[in-house]
Specification:
Blueprint lengths: L2 H16 L2 H9 L4 E6 L2 E3 L2 H8 L7 E4 L5 E10 L5 E9 L6 E3 L2 H7 L5 E2 L8 E6 L4 E11 L2 E4 L1 H7 L6 E6 L5 E10 L6 E5 H7 L6 E5 L1
The chain binds zinc ion.
The site of zinc ion (ZN) has 3 residues, from strand 10.
């Protein structure tokens, strides 16, 4: 064996010894696991509202691509509640939609003093009011503020593989120091979706889950 071979073997052994046990464990779980995406508070707007807040003719500027053709934008807004509490630099998500929706974690809603019901995305009737402040104007929404229910996006092929259907409610087992079970997780199936479970920052922090953590679907 020459020196180069010995060096190479030494490197491999050192790399194996330095690898944390949890990394090794994670890797074996990966094929069956569902990756988590942690959603921080954000805002969906119509094109008309974008122009109200950011100026006539303004179009959202994509910053980071997300699942299902969505993207995080360079644009942010300030949220102001009727109690005059403020949350700054809240990210706008694109593309624009048919109506506005503000998705908060329960902690954000408490800070603002706004009553935000737990809802599926798109179900905003009678939800919380808020005022949005942008560089070019303000916009007061009488409803649209929700805490989004946790859900799993998947393609029809993934749905067949897991044996679930659109709208089905399942549970999810999560690993780690605060391992546990999430109930009331809604399945959302669409051709444009890639496999990803969405939870908010409160849920992620409470469960020690980060974006990329793999979880297991339990029916
Ligand atoms: Zn989602």
């Amino acid at each position: 064996m020459d020196t180069k071979q010995i060096e190479r073997i030494t490197q491999l052994v050192v790399a194996a010894l330095c690898e944390a046990p949890e990394d090794r464990e994670d890797r074996t779980k990966r094929p069956e696991g569902i990756p988590v995406g942690v959603s921080a508070r954000h805002v969906h707007l119509t094109q008309e509202q974008v122009e109200l807040l950011f100026g006539k003719g303004h179009h959202l500027t994509p910053k980071k691509e997300l699942m299902g053709g969505q993207f995080a934008c360079e644009e942010t807004v300030t949220l102001i509640s009727a109690k005059m509490k403020v949350l700054e630099k809240v990210r706008v998500l694109g593309p624009t939609r048919k109506f506005a929706q503000i998705e908060l974690a329960a902690t954000d809603a408490m800070k603002l003093g706004v009553k935000a019901p737990l809802r599926d995305s798109g179900d905003v009737a009678g939800s919380g009011p808020l005022t949005l402040l942008g560089p070019a104007g303000t916009l007061t929404l009488r409803e649209g503020t929700i805490i989004a229910g946790r859900h799993i996006h998947m393609s029809p092929a993934d749905a067949a593989r897991f044996g679930v259907t659109d709208g089905q409610v399942v549970s999810v087992r999560f690993p780690g120091e605060r391992a546990g079970l999430f109930g009331q997780v809604k399945i959302r199936v669409d051709d444009s979706f890639t496999l990803e479970m969405h939870i908010d920052t409160d849920e992620a922090n409470a469960a020690c889950i980060k974006t990329g953590t793999r979880v297991e679907l339990v029916k």
